[in-house]
Amino acid sequence: MKTIAVDFDDTICKTAEHILDLVGLFFNETYDMSQLNEYDISECLNIPKEIELDAVDLAVSNEDLPLEKGADEVIRWLSQFYNIHIVTSRKPEYLEYVEDIIYNNNLAQYITDIHSSDTKAELVSYMNAVALIEDNPKYILKYMNDIDILIFDKPWNKHIRNTYNKFRVKNWNEIKDFFMIKLGSKN
Ligand SMILES: [Mg+2]
């Protein structure tokens, strides 16, 4: 089976929404995802970096982060045709929470492996993945050629345009549609 690499935060899990809730609690404010039009939360919300880092730390230590709608169902479906590898840039000490979330959502048997790396580009090419599903512009822009990049639609990646190998997907149903066409065309 071929391999698909899937990012975790803000692709499988709604991490940024949880971070916004935490920062909102701290400042007694309501923040909206549309405010995050850059990858830098403290800059977008005009809050101190330390508060962002504390909120991120709490969010990535939370084993109850909610999944993006349909992520579990589509991962189960995809695993019939592909090896699914989670490729996260989380630090290794936060990987146990990724494992917990995968386990709590009954996905462990559908995920081949979980990797942590801040050099995702190298890891994904080493894995020989045929596709990467990712929201972070930094990683999306690193891939210029041979694999399909599914840009998981978020306010901070709106500026990235579709190309011959980059495709914006709004949700997990659109990811399923993409691979249904791939499988149908036996590519
Ligand atoms: Mg991400």
At the first level of CATH, what is the class of the largest domain?
Answer: Alpha Beta
Helix-strand string: EHHHHEHEHEHEEH
CATH architecture of the largest domain: 3-Layer(aba) Sandwich
Estimated helix fraction: 25-40%
| Backbone structural class | alpha/beta
Name given to the CATH homologous superfamily of the largest domain: HAD superfamily/HAD-like
Structural domains: how many: 2
Q: Give the mean pLDDT.
A: 94
Strand order within the widest beta sheet: 3-2-1-4-5-6
Overall body shape: globular
Uncertain spans: none
Number of helices: 8
Instruction: Give the biggest beta sheet.
Output: 6 strands, parallel
CATH topology of the largest domain: Rossmann fold
Overview of the structural elements:
This protein is an alpha/beta fold and 187 residues long. It folds into two domains: 2-13 and 66-184, Rossmann fold (3-Layer(aba) Sandwich), CATH 3.40.50; 15-60, no CATH class. It contains eight helices and six strands; from the N terminus they run βααααβαβαβαββα. The chain has helices at residues 15-27, 41-45, 49-60, 71-78, 95-104, 120-126, 137-140, 172-184, and strands spanning 2-6, 82-88, 113-116, 131-134, 148-152, 166-169. The chain has a six-stranded parallel sheet with strand order 3-2-1-4-5-6, sandwiched between helices. The model has no long low-confidence stretch (mean pLDDT 94). Bound molecules: magnesium ion (MG).
